[in-house]
Amino acid sequence: MGKNYWITDKPIQVNDCIAKVIRPKAGAIDTFIGTVREFTKGKRTLYLEYQAYAEMAEKKLAQIGDEINEKWQDTETAIVHRIGRLEISDIAVVIAVSTPHRNDAFEASRYAIERIKEIVPIWKKEHWEDGTKWIGDQKEKTSYQEKLPTEEEMSDD
Amino acid sequence: MGKNYWITDKPIQVNDCIAKVIRPKAGAIDTFIGTVREFTKGKRTLYLEYQAYAEMAEKKLAQIGDEINEKWQDTETAIVHRIGRLEISDIAVVIAVSTPHRNDAFEASRYAIERIKEIVPIWKKEHWEDGTKWIGDQKEKTSYQEKLPTEEEMSDD
């Protein structure tokens, strides 16, 4: 089976993530898929580059799975995030959460994507027609024009 | 490409549904998957049987897609529902909704599953260890012990 939380530099197969959470006790699986969007506020993206501290990122993804288990009953979660260069419409992230009943699946999946953007050390570099920029924390409140934070700086939070 | 709303008696491939909604303008796809759960309130299900007025059901699914388009901006929806005999963990329904931003995808997908249970003429027959029952409307507020409503009766609502 392998692990439920992983970073990859290969194209993501959504089914790999879903297969990890299908089980007899579940009646609902919510799967959130983030894809590379061409236009943001009228500005055209040519492609994106994602970079991560992979080992730390996988630990943080697993932490999110643990948090979900504490907040909702009887969940199974799997999350995969891709890094490297991604073209328009490529899948950047897949979250799958299975639960006995559907309300929990929707809520937990939504929680997961917000938490990924808050705590997982993954950054994206936007490549536009007229330049590039590292988008800082995934909530996009900070931008790193020059360089990414070090792994040590990330460990502090 | 084929249609975005369909009833099938074959195993559902989740990717077939997702492929219909991936597009450059979308940054988020929420995919809801309903699977056959083994236990409901302590009672063990052996398998399910789904039956539908397929042509009417497909029209109603398309109507739900139209409703989503009216309620949220710039959506693309695909829905497939399986009929016939389904074993534990089999996929009964997949809904995929793509939108530019993720909040809309979550909300629209959730809306779709509630509406399916309200308006689409699909019924399930529970096969337990000690008997069977047709679960009536999909909200499970009515049960049909004897027979399903006729297609004409369904058309009235």
From TrEMBL, chains A, B:
<comment type="similarity">
    <text>Belongs to the MoaE family.</text>
</comment>
<dbReference type="InterPro" id="IPR003448">
    <property type="entry name" value="Mopterin_biosynth_MoaE"/>
</dbReference>
<comment type="function">
    <text>Converts molybdopterin precursor Z into molybdopterin. This requires the incorporation of two sulfur atoms into precursor Z to generate a dithiolene group. The sulfur is provided by MoaD.</text>
</comment>
<dbReference type="GO" id="GO:0006777">
    <property type="term" value="P:Mo-molybdopterin cofactor biosynthetic process"/>
</dbReference>
<comment type="pathway">
    <text>Cofactor biosynthesis; molybdopterin biosynthesis.</text>
</comment>
<feature type="compositionally biased region" description="Basic and acidic residues">
    <location>
        <begin position="135"/>
        <end position="150"/>
    </location>
</feature>
<comment type="subunit">
    <text>Heterotetramer of 2 MoaD subunits and 2 MoaE subunits. Also stable as homodimer. The enzyme changes between these two forms during catalysis.</text>
</comment>
<dbReference type="InterPro" id="IPR036563">
    <property type="entry name" value="MoaE_sf"/>
</dbReference>
<feature type="region of interest" description="Disordered">
    <location>
        <begin position="135"/>
        <end position="157"/>
    </location>
</feature>
<keyword id="KW-0501">Molybdenum cofactor biosynthesis</keyword>
<dbReference type="GO" id="GO:0030366">
    <property type="term" value="F:molybdopterin synthase activity"/>
</dbReference>
<keyword id="KW-0808">Transferase</keyword>
<protein>
    <recommendedName>
        <fullName>Molybdopterin synthase catalytic subunit</fullName>
        <ecNumber>2.8.1.12</ecNumber>
    </recommendedName>
</protein>
<dbReference type="Pfam" id="PF02391">
    <property type="entry name" value="MoaE"/>
</dbReference>
